[in-house]
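User: tokens in, sequence out, please.
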């Protein structure tokens, strides 16, 4: 039987006091690659933020990687995020540190102490995204595509059960977007569950997969050809 990584039942998503999405019922199983599509302002980012604890779930029920979103306490959020890999549109790399130092900061902040283990883990994830020779570089010395590869590698540092990618190709040109998508699909093929918010319909046609749509304050699954 498939293992459920993410499930929401009768959930409402709020941005401050504004209701953004209502009657959200969905399930993502281990190993799935799921797109989340919708126009700007349709609630994609608010939905993602709810999943990693940035916006509290106050209405309905939700579980993400064995954490109950309704009862999630602030002190538990770092533990939830250790089980998640989060990839942002704007990379969110610390500009004053090298790639290696960026990763070291994340690992130390999430409880890693042994420097040799830290260095080994950094080598592993950089190798997975073909960036092993770039650890000494600062973010501004990398292209947009390289920065996103680094951001994806950072998301893999704690061996996450679920990767949440929020518009990961939004700042990239079409060719680089395809390269980043191939990387994400390879990561998914190796058993990682990925939920990716995007408005790039060309990628959906090139890399079809299960698709959820935010529209009219609801989330529903769509058949690929009708996207």
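Assistant: Sequence out:
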């Amino acid at each position: 039987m498939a293992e459920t990584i993410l499930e929401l039942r009768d959930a409402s998503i709020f941005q401050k006091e504004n209701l953004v999405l209502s009657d959200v019922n969905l399930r993502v199983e281990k190993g799935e690659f799921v797109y989340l599509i919708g126009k700007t302002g349709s609630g994609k980012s608010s939905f993602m933020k709810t999943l990693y604890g940035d916006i509290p779930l106050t209405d309905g029920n939700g579980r993400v990687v064995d954490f109950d979103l309704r009862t999630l306490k602030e002190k538990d959020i770092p533990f939830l995020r250790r089980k998640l890999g989060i990839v942002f549109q704007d990379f969110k790399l610390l500009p004053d540190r090298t790639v290696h130092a960026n990763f070291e900061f994340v690992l130390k902040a999430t409880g890693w102490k042994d420097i040799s283990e830290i260095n080994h883990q950094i080598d592993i994830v950089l190798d997975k995204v073909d960036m092993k020779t770039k650890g000494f570089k600062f973010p501004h010395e990398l292209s947009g595509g390289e920065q996103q590869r680094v951001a994806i590698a950072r998301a893999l540092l704690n061996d996450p059960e679920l990767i949440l990618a929020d518009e990961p190709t939004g700042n990239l040109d079409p060719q680089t977007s395809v390269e980043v998508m191939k990387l994400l699909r390879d990561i998914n093929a190796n058993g990682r569950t990925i939920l990716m918010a995007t408005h790039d319909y060309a990628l959906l046609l090139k890399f079809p997969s299960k698709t959820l749509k935010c529209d009219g304050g609801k989330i529903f699954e769509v058949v690929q050809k009708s996207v």
